[in-house]
Amino acid sequence: MEQDTPADDLPDEQNPDYLGKFIFDHNGLKHFDGQVLSLAEQAYLAVFTESYEEPDL
């Protein structure tokens, strides 16, 4: 179901844009909680997220 308006006000389970969430603890990434992404996609995003550095503007 496509919507013309943002789905920000929907609960995560009903939001078509929601893919899941990464759970972090003080040591870094703990696990991914979601059902949409494959293990390979989860691993790719985990590496990207942990190594991301904001550019200097």
Automatic annotation (TrEMBL):
Q: Which domain of life is it from?
A: Bacteria
Q: What is this protein called?
A: Uncharacterized protein
Organism field: Mucilaginibacter agri
> Species lineage, top-down?
Bacteria, Pseudomonadati, Bacteroidota, Sphingobacteriia, Sphingobacteriales
